[in-house]
Design a protein that fits this description.
- This protein is of the alpha/beta class.
- It folds into two domains: about 120 residues, NAD(P)-binding Rossmann-like Domain (Rossmann fold), CATH 3.40.50; about 150 residues, 2-Layer Sandwich (Dihydrodipicolinate Reductase, domain 2).
- The protein contains ten helices and 14 strands.
- A hairpin with a 5-residue loop joins strand 13 and strand 14.
- The longest helix has 18 residues.
- The protein is globular.
- The chain starts with a strand and ends in a 13-residue tail after the last helix.
- The chain binds NADP nicotinamide-adenine-dinucleotide phosphate (NAP).
- NADP nicotinamide-adenine-dinucleotide phosphate (NAP) binds next to helix 1.
Length: about 325
């Protein structure tokens, strides 16, 4: 019988709950602690999910002997410093997207993880999704020929979100780009790698000043990615990756697909099914468990370099659309 991996959870918001529900589907781990800014919220969360330790700070979680790895589920603005404190205290960390404000912070986070010999991974669940993994294999095997384009959108009508909501609030590193745009950029990076140039335009939130709607073009030597994100309405959540011989259409919610359609220009289309488990977060948890059990400090499905390269693209977009967060002099500085 293997020792269960002991998870700590930082924050008690929406995604923290969803992730804990998915961890409950796995039999080789336990959630042993939750930490919140508020002792009451930690206690309520612990009671709801039957978690033995409710803590009232990052420091208490970092000091806990009951935890091997912490899932950081705070807003983007509160990823960097808590992750550093947890790594320094000897915890492994799975940190939500957008991983940090910028690539400079992301590099520091991975440097500190290496220095302390701890595992650190961006919680980019899309890269761990079974259909996406299968799609990567199909692309690698040439099923659509040479990739020529990625078209990806992530948008919804968020007209009723209050200005304080993390999507709109600059103090929480809000904006469509870091929250939503990170997904189509990640899929373009997954299919095509680092672009030779980036261009972007945005419509800014009239009240809070963050980007409400952003369009991005990534230019590669022999391909183009056209991506968009928005919380003021838009085309939805589709992604199509096209090549010289065919294209892949990601179904349903493209960032957690349950399969895809392979369209060959010279023949019939084929449907591939690759269902996800639970809410879809089980697969990133399994990737963490595999790495920890094998003594690896880096994920192979979400490697540090891909996180940093995606953050570099987001930095360049922010530089072009003029989006700086409080305290930042430039998106490319930490
Ligand atoms: N992978 C995914 O599919 C996915 C989905 C949704 C969100 N996310 C990411 O997960 C992170 C959290 O998103 P969420 O939807 O869970 O947000 P949320 O519902 O607003 O919860 C965020 C939690 O962070 C804690 N927090 C700490 N400092 C905070 C501050 N200054 N202001 C507000 N909250 C603070 C709060 O918990 P306490 O009050 O207990 O401290 C709060 O409940 C974001 O980075 C987001 O991009 C990922």
């Amino acid at each position: 019988m293997v020792e269960p991996i002991r998870w700590g959870i930082l924050a008690t918001g929406g995604i923290a709950s969803t992730f804990v529900e998915d961890l409950a589907l796995l039999d080789d781990c336990r959630v042993t602690a939750v930490a919140s800014r508020s002792a009451e919220r930690a206690a309520a969360f612990a009671k709801k999910y039957d978690i033995p330790h409710a803590l009232d700070s990052v420091q208490a979680l970092a000091a806990s002997d009951e935890v091997d790895i912490v899932y950081v589920a705070t807003p983007h603005s509160h990823h960097y410093l808590p992750t550093l404190r947890l790594l320094e205290a000897g915890k492994h960390v799975l940190c939500e997207k957008a991983f940090a404000y910028n690539a400079a912070q992301a590099r520091t986070m991975f440097d500190v993880a290496r220095e302390h010999q701890r595992f650190l991974m961006e919680a980019m669940w899309t890269r761990c999704n079974p259909a996406i993994r299968e799609m990567r294999r199909a692309i690698k095997e040439g099923m659509i020929g040479e990739v020529v384009s990625v078209n990806g959108n992530f948008s919804f009508g968020g007209g009723d979100l209050p200005p304080s909501h993390r999507l709109r609030n600059p103090e929480l590193a809000g904006g469509a780009l870091l929250d939503l745009g990170v997904y189509p950029v990640t899929l373009a990076h997954l299919a095509l790698g680092v672009p030779e140039s980036v261009s972007a335009v945005a419509v800014m939130d009239e009240v809070t000043g963050v980007d409400a709607q952003t369009a991005i073009t990534l230019k590669y030597p022999k391909a183009v990615a056209q991506l968009s994100c928005s919380y003021r309405g838009g085309p939805g959540n589709e992604v199509v990756i096209a090549g010289t011989e065919g294209r892949i259409e990601l179904r349903d919610y493209a960032y957690r697909p349950s399969g895809y359609t392979l369209v060959r220009y010279d023949g019939p289309s084929r449907e591939f099914e690759a269902p996800y488990v639970g809410h879809g977060y089980v697969h990133e948890a399994l990737e963490v468990h595999r790495a920890l059990r094998q003594g690896r400090l880096e994920s192979t499905l979400v490697p540090p370099q891909s996180t940093i390269e995606v953050m570099e693209i987001l930095d360049e977009v922010r530089a072009q659309i003029g989006l700086r967060y409080p305290g930042e002099t430039h998106p490319k500085q930490s």
